[in-house]
């Protein structure tokens, strides 16, 4: 019974971990299949790692190290194939649907270079850039585009006068942060004209 519970917990943990990205599913499946004793021979459809592990032959030279020693990616002259059709500058392969999706799936940013438009609904191309950001990130008070393009020409934000303090720079902070001896406004205006308290 204890073994069943442990197996169930492990299965649930793997299920949760792989929900993040389709490549994580492939990784979890690969990990399960590469566990084999050193010194064994591999089947005809398998590749033998220098460490003695056996992996599926199709995993060799796929730009993802599946052998614990990485020997399946040594001396490879291969291109991305199958569902992974885009080869990143660092050699990693990602699905073409990951290109210009506002996420650095390659790890080197090469899937987000030279984007002329943003293929995902709700994403906008930053001016003078190839970076895509979600449309709700415009005028949110945080610069997401190079040069702060997403924060330029925004209407001044109005603070809720009953719950927020309006800083001199237009920023809104909770009213309770006013005169609390901490600079909460970027311009420190929340501490200006406050009554001073003697230090005891």
TrEMBL record:
GO terms for biological process: vesicle-mediated transport. It is a single-pass membrane protein. It is found in: Endomembrane system; Membrane. Its main location: membrane. Keywords: Disulfide bond, Glycoprotein, Membrane, Repeat, Signal, Transmembrane, Transmembrane helix. CDD domains: LDLa. Disulfide bonds join 42-54, 49-67, 61-76, 88-106, 100-115, 139-154, 167-185, 179-194. Residues 1-17 form the signal peptide. SMART domains: LDLa (SM00192). One of its GO terms (cellular component) is plasma membrane. This is EGF-like domain-containing protein.
């Amino acid at each position: 019974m204890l073994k069943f519970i442990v197996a169930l917990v492990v299965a649930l943990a793997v299920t949760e971990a792989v929900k993040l990205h389709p490549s994580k599913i492939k990784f979890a499946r690969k990990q399960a299949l590469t566990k084999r004793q050193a010194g064994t021979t591999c089947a005809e459809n398998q590749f033998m790692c220098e460490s003695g592990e056996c992996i599926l032959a199709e995993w060799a030279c796929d730009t993802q190290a599946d052998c614990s020693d990485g020997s399946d990616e040594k001396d490879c002259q291969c291109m991305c194939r199958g569902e992974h059709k885009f080869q990143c500058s660092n050699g990693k392969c990602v699905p073409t649907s990951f290109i210009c999706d506002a996420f650095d799936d390659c790890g080197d940013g090469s899937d987000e270079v030279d984007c002329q438009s943003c293929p995902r609904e709700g994403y906008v191309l930053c001016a003078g850039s190839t970076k895509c950001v979600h449309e709700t990130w415009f005028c949110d008070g945080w610069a997401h585009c190079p040069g702060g393009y997403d924060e330029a020409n925004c209407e001044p934000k109005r603070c809720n006068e009953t719950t927020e303090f309006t800083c001199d720079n237009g920023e809104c902070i909770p009213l309770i942060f006013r005169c609390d001896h901490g600079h909460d406004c970027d311009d420190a205006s929340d501490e200006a004209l406050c009554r001073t308290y003697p230090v005891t």
